[in-house]
Amino acid sequence: MSEIFISLKPRFATIIEQREKDHEFRQYKPKHPVTKLWTYVSGDQSELRYVLEVDEPVEYPDPVPAGGIGNEEFNAGNKESTFAFPITHLHRIEDELPLSTLRDEFDFYPPQRFTYVGQYPELVEHVRGSTEQIF
Q1: Which is the most buried residue in 20, 40, 111, 123, by most CB within 10 A?
Q2: Torsion angles phi and psi, residue 72, rounded to 5
Q3: Are the C-beta atoms of residues 64 and 23 closer than 8 Å to each other?
Q4: How does pLDDT run across 105-129, given as a tens digit for each residue?
Q5: In degrees, to the nearest 5, what angle opens at C-alpha 44 toward C-alphas 42 and 47?
Q6: Global pTM?
Q7: CB of 40 closer than 8 Å to CB of 90
Q8: Nearest Cα residue to 3 out of 94, 134, 104, 131
Q9: pLDDT of residue 129
Q10: How many Cα atoms occupy the beta-carbon half-sphere of 87 within 13 Å?
Q11: What share of the chain is helix, strand, coil (3-state, %, to 5)?
Q12: pLDDT grade, residue 1 (50/70/90)?
């Protein structure tokens, strides 16, 4: 099982934390099954903030349950995304790491698509165990 870093726009981070969005939609599925999405929130916030636990992604045209933001659009084929990762748990990093710290201390740059966490073992070790489960 793999874990990856992804980037997420602030508006999507908010609705995930509020449990209004229950799937993370992506145009790709990594080679190896993914269990966690380490989430860098872009924009004005620019920080590593969440670790999302996810189940095996649903591939369009298979449907996802209705109700979450974006689910109906996915089911109708109106999203660019082909894969929907069901979010099962959300962990908030207790001391979010701003981009300046990520770069200076861990040589981390936000992924354009995704990056396997194995590329940043020191960062993962620093964060592991310092998260609070939101749901």
Answers
A1: 40
A2: -65, -40
A3: yes
A4: 999 999 999 999 999 999 999 998 8
A5: 50
A6: 0.95
A7: no
A8: 131
A9: 87
A10: 29
A11: 25, 35, 40
A12: confident
Residue type, 130: S
- Give, in words, the CATH class of 2-133: alpha beta
Q: Are 73 and 81 in contact (CB under 8 A)?
A: no
pLDDT digits (tens, 9 = 90+) for 6-18: 999 999 999 999 9
Tell me the three state secondary structure of residue 109: coil
Q: What is the per-residue pLDDT across 61-103, written as a single tens digit (0 to 9) for each?
A: 999 999 999 999 999 999 999 999 999 999 999 999 999 999 9
34 is written with which tokens? 């993914």
> Please, are residues 123 and 102 in contact by the beta-carbon 8 Å criterion?
yes
Query: In angstroms, rounded to a whole number, what is the distance separating the alpha carbons of residues 27 and 2?
Result: 18
